[in-house]
Amino acid sequence: MHKYWGFGLLISSTVEFPELMPATSPHTDVTIAIGMVPVIHASATFCTGRITYDIVNDAALLFTVDGIATYYVADGNRIIISPLADDVEPRVLRMFVLAGAMAGILQQRKKIPLHAAGIVTDGGLTLITGHSGAGKSTTLAGLQEKKYPIFTDDITVLHHCADDDRVRGTAAYPMLKLWEQSMQTLQLHDRSFPVMPGMEKYGVFFHQDFDTQHYPIRRIILLATADIDEIRHVQLNGSMAFTQVIQHIYKPVLFRQPAVRAVCFHMISAMTRQAVTHCVTRPLQSDPAELLTVVKSLL
After folding, report:
1. How far, in whole angstroms, is CA 204 from its chain's centroid?
2. Of 42, 84, 87, 229, which is most buried with the most CB atoms under 10 A?
3. How far apart are CA 222 and CA 244, in angstroms?
4. Percent share of the chain, pLDDT over 70
5. Does domain 114-298 have CATH number 4.10.410?
6. pTM of the predicted structure, to 2 decimals
7. Does pLDDT of 183 surpass 80?
8. Which range (87-91, 174-178, 275-279) has the least confidence?
């Protein structure tokens, strides 16, 4: 059994996950295993691309990735992977655990995964988010080059602590995911870990510098693109900040049930009240160094 820390949880897995942080604690929050998934009776079914989600209730769901595997997620503590073929690449099986099943675990635990990178400054967390192509991962890698401590690349887990009313963030796992263009821009040469076979997107590990602590969220930077001539920056407040940030909940298909929608609403509302929210919009074609300079000025 392999032992890991990821998403703020201690994980015991029969599947090896080089993406996760090794752990030695005897405690287990979540188990992951290859096996047969149970027959379920779904109360709701959603399809997004090649993935079909069957929601049983707030404590159980099953999703199937065409040609890859079926994943059963239950009780906030259990994931069963049932491959649909004998020759499925292990890296692909793992990717849908990290990018799907763990979001289900968090939903069942009433924690919110936000599609946001993060850096730690002055004991607080700055989140950097934006839709695909906005420059999030490239900006984060640029900040790492400038010696800013990287907290998380793709997912930040939002939660409240029992003794603190501030919304806090926990990192997912210690890997940046960069497209080939970003690798070239940042002059990174290690392409030994493609995120998926045949995809020009690569994992860049930072296990040695990974921080498993949680921090209060002090600042949110939303990145966007538009048909403009220069980078623009505006501070967002109130409902505008809430409306923009809630769009970046990770795997929103899992957060449609009334109870978890309420958790999302209260968590994002509290976070946008407590944190300063900025929106930085860049031209469709722009120099990543210019965007990095603007983001640095907000830290």
Report:
1. 15
2. 42
3. 8
4. 100
5. no
6. 0.92
7. no
8. 174-178
What is the pLDDT, as a whole number, of residue 136? 86
Q: Could you identify the residue written with the tokens 């287990």?
A: 28
Amino acid at 119: I
Could you give the residue range(s) of every CATH 3.40.50 domain in the chain? 114-298
Neighbour tally for 4: CB within 10 Å: 21
Sign of the Cα pseudo-torsion (296, 151, 18, 129, in order): negative
With CA atoms as reference, report the closest residue to 62 among 50, 78, 73, 49: 73
176 and 203 Cβ atoms separated by less than 8 Å: yes
pLDDT of amino acid 269: 96
